[in-house]
Amino acid sequence: MQSLVFAPSHITGFFEIIDHPNPLIKGSRGAGVVLDQGVLTKVDVCEGNGELIIKTNGKTNDHNSPLESSVTYKTMDLLKNHFSDGIEWNNLKITIDHEINVPIESGFGASAGFALGTSIGLSKLLKLPLTFNQAAAVAHNAEVDLKTGLGDVIGSVVGGFPIRIEPGAPGQGKADKLLDGCDDRTNNEEGLFVISKSLGTIETASVLTDPAMASKLSSIARELLQKLLINPQVTHFMDLSLEFAQKTGLIDPEVMEIVDVLKDETLGASMAMLGKTAFAISDTPDSSVEGSMVARVDHCGCRIV
Questions:
Q1: Rg of the chain over CA atoms, in angstroms?
Q2: pLDDT in the model for residue 183
Q3: Phi/psi-derived region of residue 147, left when phi > 0, alpha when psi is between -120 and 50, beta in every other case
Q4: Residue 48 CA to chain centroid, in angstroms?
Q5: Into how many domains does the chain fold?
Q6: Which end of the chain is more exposed for a tag (fewer CB within 10 A), N or C?
Q7: What are phi and psi of 255, to 5 degrees?
Q8: Nearest to residue 266, comparing CAs of 190, 196, 182, 164?
Q9: At a CB cut-off of 8 Å and minimum separation 6, what does 226 contact?
């Protein structure tokens, strides 16, 4: 038995951390954009002896090393714990094969893609008593437990330009999306583009576990979210995202240099949260930034394909 799940990447422009003892309520408020590039996960289940094989772009992963392996194992563990009675896990051989075409730990929400593909794919194949949102909530739970993300799962599920109004997993949190940009094919047959350039990684957990930084960025983001809801436009979202990056001090001179170039060529540019990555929203796929990645905005969200 096989299933195929596509989880589009989610870039966060700004976010407020909301802590809670319940991982399904813990999360973030903020806003972002979803790309038509991300993580495609193939799940294969057959008779076996409890073996679990995890691959990324064809390479078998070690349990103790890569991000994609750890978040996938965590998602599996949560499903096993929830359904330890109904499923004979020791009689199954499960292969989870992730294909990813965005950088890892660079602000593209890759870990959410690994978790979503695992949870939704397995839930469908094993006919677990979960709705789509409930399966996605397991992925959110894995992310929160590992401190790899707080809002990328619900962002990837919503698609377009998600606004996370209340924190939490799909089905628990409250999310909307920018109307501006939803019907972006009216004047441009190809829609809006996301242009990005990654210069390296930022470990998400290092920021999420720093109390002083968490307090600072949350107070700034709280005000920006209210401003976006008053004027929910794509260009305003990008302006607020850059304001967040600069006021928090998260953006460094290297990324800012690229952002300055992209600002002059697009509808707005900022830094992806959390990664050493510049991103911009554009009417065209053209950019003078060498080695930039170009994607379209994905309005459909995470889905079985």
A1: 19
A2: 62
A3: left
A4: 32
A5: 1
A6: C
A7: -70, -40
A8: 196
A9: none
Per residue of the chain (305 residues), give pLDDT as tens.
Answer: 899 999 999 999 999 999 999 999 999 999 999 999 999 999 999 999 999 999 999 888 765 556 666 899 999 999 999 998 889 999 999 999 999 999 998 999 999 999 999 999 999 999 999 999 999 999 999 999 999 999 999 999 999 999 999 999 999 999 999 998 776 544 455 689 999 999 988 777 777 778 888 899 999 999 999 999 999 999 999 999 999 999 999 999 999 999 999 999 999 999 999 899 999 999 999 999 999 999 999 999 999 99
- For 87: left if phi > 0, alpha if psi spans -120 to 50, otherwise beta; the answer is beta
CATH code for position 186: 3.30.230.120
**Pair of tokens at residue 299:** 């309005």
* Residues whose CB is less than 8 angstroms from the CB of residue 107 and which lie 6 or more positions away in sequence, other chains included: 11, 12, 198, 202, 271, 272, 273, 274, 275, 276, 277, 279
Task: For residues 258 and 235, give the distance between their C-alpha atoms in angstroms, rounded to a whole number.
Answer: 18
119-148 burial string, b = 16+ CB within 10 Å, else e? bbbbbbbbebebebebbbbbbbbbbbebeb
Report residue 292 as tokens.
């930039």
Angle at 97 between CA 93 and CA 101, to 5 degrees: 170
Tokens of 280: 């911009």
Contact yes or no for 287/195 (Cβ under 8 A): yes
H-only helix segments in the chain = 67-82, 110-125, 132-146, 152-158, 204-208, 211-230, 234-248, 253-265
- Domain of residue 93 covers 1-305
**Looking at the chain, how many residues does it have?**
305
- The predicted pLDDT at position 185 comes to 47
Instruction: With CA atoms as reference, report the closest residue to 240 among 253, 221, 262, 267.
Output: 221
